Amino acid sequence: MNRLCALVTGASSGIGLDIARDLAAKGFDLILTARSRDALERIAAELSSAHGIHTYAFSYDLALADAPSELYDAVAATGHVVDVLINNAGFAMYGPFADGDTRTGLDLLQVNVVALTHLTRLFLPGMLKRGRGRILNVASTAAFQPGPLMAVYYASKAYVLHFSEAIAEEVRGTGVTVTALCPGATRTGFQKRGGLDDSKLFQGNVLDSAAVARDGVAAMLRGQMLVIPGLRNQVLIALERFSPRWLIPRIIRRMQAPVTKQG
């Protein structure tokens, strides 16, 4: 009997790596992609040996416009069909929008929004034709509000959430489901790349990456449209509905301001 196959983007670290580990333990063959070839190949060999699965490692930079199409062709060449698509790749940038690097902001949108949309468009028709499939798009609790000091990132995750919920409704009843995973602050390499180490948001109580991955995979396999890991995050999102719209950006800015260092 053929195993199901999952494609995981951003699989070399953080939530993407933990999702890959969770799926490997469940017996899925894996196609892993990220920018770091050496890390990917090591992880692929590790998971294949530990779980007796087939793994493939493809190094692509999803900030490049042609990368999703090239990845799709590389996957087709393996002879596998993608039963599960995990759109996890993404990054943030921190600081006032007017001071930010233009190229970094555009690359962020290419990875977080355009590549995710492109890969979904490439793999979804095959799933619909086969009458089965699962898509997990990694959004964020950032999707529920504007984010001063991370304006582009928050806006990108709002797109991911709304896109995922819309497509989930479009494919309802087809055997294919779409899930949006919306974690809050999670301890990964993500905050270092985004320059977030000094932000108040990543001080104190943050989520565990492996737990977030387990919650996301479980919700996806159930066909659940939305999952917000952590009771605290669920409560905060619910409370936002009762807050004045003008107040929310002020609260978020205060939460994301740099920590004042003593000494």
Unreliable runs: none
**Beta-strand percent range:** 5-15%
Q: How many structural domains does the protein architecture include?
A: 1
Number of strands: 9
Structural class of the secondary elements? alpha/beta
Count of helix runs? 9
* Sequence of strands across the biggest β-sheet: 3-2-1-4-5-6-9
Which architecture per CATH? 3-Layer(aba) Sandwich
In one word, what is the shape?
globular
N-to-C CA distance = 63 Å
Helix fraction by DSSP (H/I, runs of at least 4) = 40-55%
What is the CATH class designation? Alpha Beta
Order of helices and strands: EHEHEHEHEHEEHEHEHH
Instruction: Give me the Rg, rounded.
Output: 18 Å
Describe the structure.
This protein is of the alpha/beta class and 263 residues long. 48% of the residues lie in helices and 14% in strands. The chain has helices at residues 14-25, 37-51, 67-78, 102-130, 151-170, 190-193, 209-222, 231-240, 247-256, and strands at residues 5-9, 29-34, 55-59, 84-87, 133-138, 176-181, 186-187, 207-208, 226-227. It has a seven-stranded parallel β-sheet, with helices on both faces. A two-stranded parallel ribbon has the order 7-8. The radius of gyration is 18 Å and the shape is globular. The N and C termini lie far apart (63 Å).
